[in-house]
Design goal:
Largest sheet: 8 strands, mixed
Strand content: over 45%
Distance between the termini: 15 Å
Order of helices and strands: HEEEEEEEEEE
Structural class: mainly beta
Bound molecules: nickel (II) ion
Radius of gyration: 14 Å
Shape: globular
Helix content: under 10%
Amino acid sequence: MDPISDPISLDKALSSFTDLWSPRIVTAVNDYDVRVAKVEGEHVWHVHDHTDEFFLVLEGELHIALREKKGETDGERTVVLPKGSVFTVPRGTEHKPYAPSTAAILVFEPTGTLSVGDRHDDVPDHVDVTPGHMLRP
Ligand code: NI
């Protein structure tokens, strides 16, 4: 990606598009992207086999359903992230983000990481399968 040499207002970045579940790359840190997305409703169950995935909630509230492997038993739980919360989904953990109403999130993960992971359920039409789109100023 081209280096971004000017400061980016996240508010302006978020107001420059309307698509849901369609992350925009706002900057990069070494070989990681910083992406922002508008979200509402359900994403899709998926897993990133090789990387953790960091979430920061900028606006609204994000829920993340997790299927965690705990020894012999597999547990499912949902974490609730109010505005200002951070959470990291560990690599190899199936997860499905959900937003009860319009929310905005920041995601930090290796460049090229696909929005639906390495394995996923059937992707609904409202979920964009992408490694992130460049922000158009
Ligand atoms: Ni993910």
